[in-house]
Amino acid sequence: AQSVTQPDIHITVSEGASLELRCNYSYGATPYLFWYVQSPGQGLQLLLKYFSGDTLVQGIKGFEAEFKRSQSSFNLRKPSVHWSDAAEYFCAVAVKSSGDKLTFGTGTRLAVRP
Amino acid sequence: GAGVSQSPRYKVTKRGQDVALRCDPISGHVSLYWYRQALGQGPEFLTYFNYEAQQDKSGLPNDRFSAERPEGSISTLTIQRTEQRDSAMYRCASAPPLGGEQFFGPGTRLTVL
User: Using one digit for the tens of pLDDT, what is the confidence trace for B95-108?
Assistant: First the structure.
């Protein structure tokens, strides 16, 4: 079965600084890869997804992620963080043969210093 | 709106009571998924449907949990004889016919006293 590891539980960055959130997955083949964001009291919103093709994926709100097969990683990046980016971020994987059900990591909570 | 809706948004119940959580997916979405999210954790898969057929219920914790989607649209997740450990956020998501992205509803926060 697939699994997802997000090694950073909490991260604090200053507004305007760059951001990288780490995600590693475990699966024999290349799964579908996702990043979701959850703001307080809100549902899960998809930031970006990778199915195949170009390994650098652009998403909403200025986020991007890079799939690295050799490292089984799908790290999320943003060049300049805004205060409104404070939220919890979840990496997830899905396998087509399992009906696309998502397996989530435990999440990384991002705080932004003014 | 055109998004996934869930009701109720909040449910407080006493231990031993049955609860029914409802999910109304985006119109035209074939697949519907239920997840449970404990505090400080990521969502965990419970079950999913394609149309009205329950395809996978491997994530349901025990036989007190059941789900149905009788007409291939609205789904109900039922928890019988609730226990305190059932307290969590229950999330529903739907996906279009070709799969891929799942669209999540706002969730139902269940508290069992």
Answer: 988 777 899 999 99
User: Considering only residues 48 to 67 of chain A, which have any Cβ-Cβ distance to chain B shorter than 8 Å?
Assistant: 49, 51
pLDDT score recorded for residue B63: 96
Share of chain B above pLDDT 70, in %: 99
Contact A34, A102 (CB under 8 A): yes
A100 touching B (Cβ < 8 Å): yes
User: Which of chain B's residues have a Cβ under 8 Å away from the Cβ of A106?
Assistant: 40-42
Tokens of A75: 């790290």
Q: Which of B20, B4, B12 is nearest to B92 (CA)?
A: B4
Separation of first and last alpha carbons in chain A:
41
Best of B29, B102, B103, B108 to substitute, by most chain A Cβ atoms within 10 angstroms, is B102
Shortest CB distance from A105 goes to which of B42, B93, B95? B42
User: Among residues B55, B99, B60, B42, which one has the least CA distance to residue A103?
Assistant: B42
Question: A51 to chain B: which residues are within 8 Å by CB?
Answer: 100
- As a whole number of angstroms, the distance between CA A85 and CA A73 comes to 22
SS3 sequence, chain B?
Answer: CCCCEEECCEEEECCCCCEEEEEECCCCCCEEEEEEECCCCCCEEEEEEECCEEEECCCCCCCCEEEECCCCCCEEEEECCCCHHHCEEEEEEEECCCCCCCEECCCEEEEEC
